[in-house]
Specification:
There is one protein chain. With 171 residues, the chain is mainly β. It contains no helices and 13 strands. It is rod-shaped.
Amino acid sequence: PQGSTGDKTFTANWTANIYAITYHLNGGSDPGNPDTYTVETETFTLKNPTKDGYTFAGWVGTALPSATTEVTIPKGSTGNREYTALWTAINYPITYDLKGGTVDSATPNPTSYTVDTPTFRINNPTKAGYTFDGWTGPGYDTPSKTVEIPKGSTGAKHYVAHWTAIEYTIT
């Protein structure tokens, strides 16, 4: 107060500001990254998310000049941050064992697909002197003449054609 005399000691007390970290995973799984940090938080590196059918292409956002798969926030950093995950669809191969058959060259079967490829059916082959019984492969343990790969599927596919020899009558 006014009129006080003598030496005085004052101590400043500080509370570190808490800064938010916002993530946009675009369908990816949360890898358990922190939602906040302070100027006193030890240096940390963001964990990368995962997403079925995709490869993580990197983070874009605060203080990043381009997409990167390694984002480190050093101790002493300040300010809210925001990061967005980028993804690249994995290109899965499709192989066929036609067992001597052929597929019409005007409508060939696809040799690859991604998780984003619209649902499609594979074309059936032909073979002189044989009846096509169907395909076996992932999801088809018994021969099927209608094999469909739905949008959202993942993994390499291999299909095998099955045939029955046509029995001819000789008179």
